[in-house]
Amino acid sequence: MSRNYNFCAGPAALPNEVLDQLKAEIPDWQGKGLSVMEMSHRSKEFIEIAETAKQDFIDLLEINDDYDVLFVQGGASLQFSMIPMNLLENNHALCSYLDVGQWSKKAIKEAKKFGQVEISASSADLSYKKYPKPDTWKIHPDSIFTHLVLNETIDGVCLRNLDNLPKRSLVADCSSCILSEPLDVTKFSMLYAGAQKNIGPSGLAIIVIKKDLLEEKDSLPAMMQYKTYADSDSMYNTPPTFAWYLSGMVFKWLKKNGGLTNQKNVNESKANKLYSYIDQSDFYKNDVDKESRSIMNVPFLLGEDSLNSKFLAESEGNGLLNLAGHRSVGGMRASIYNGVPEEGVDALIDFMKEFEKNNG
Ligand SMILES: Cc1ncc(COP(=O)(O)O)c(C=O)c1O
After folding, report:
1. What share of the chain is helix, strand, coil (3-state, %, to 5)?
2. I need a surface site. Which of 26, 44, 141, 217 has the fewest CB within 10 A?
């Protein structure tokens, strides 16, 4: 199997070991003569796959019994709607949002359809290059919940220090940082993540929600209510079985490799190497505030924009894929999720050095 290094922001690189296992299991899962994709979701085999995946996720994040974990289709974007639909009583209810990047803006736009949104902090005037410190957030006393995107994938901006989070009902989009390091779930009422970065295939979102938020909402369609998922072990209808199964394989891989503490060490090492190289170079630039830098998404600009297409063509020729920055910001972006090994970052830095030598 020939594998390149994939720096895509999502759907993103999966660990090679997981793909090897998948390849072996696809035609014949554990001697049953069929693949997981062909199994009934009500079969005892699939129920065990599903329950094990859920438990492994709970173990990795050390989630306590006050929370339920739900597997929901529709990606993280559906959560932008489901959160205000489920957590707000009516269109007059107040909720707070941090405006810290492109995904925050999308979440805010949806929330405005279901309630009154106040912006408790914004870094728009800093072009989203710095995450506002928690002690500057202004949360209205009547606000039902406060939503934040913990790691803004496009801008490469992250809230790295969670020590001083306000003791309010916090809801966090962790799509691009989940499982990258340990996370104290008890600081949040709810968190969620689209699967296609550190978890598994796209289309699935995993929700961690305090059980006391799981209220019946008769006015909502069944598939839009968290309670429906909680009451049915996320199997009210046919769940995305393949995504669930493959995510479970990723969780086992993480557990086998030292869990999230090890992941934090590896991820910090990868990110530090890349930022250090960029910072000492006169050719590459990352202009995110140093304390707000993401360890998952590293955007960078070249000395001249006119070199972007050359950089992309040559990097791809060297087996380094998907380095283009998001279309809204341009430049480059290396997403260095759990599935990107440290050797991938080393290979990228070697290529960047060579490119700088030839074009700088
Ligand atoms: C932080 C963040 N939130 C939400 C989304 C949207 O996820 P989805 O495409 O699964 O709806 C993304 C996608 O990249 C993201 O990075």
Report:
1. 40, 15, 40
2. 141
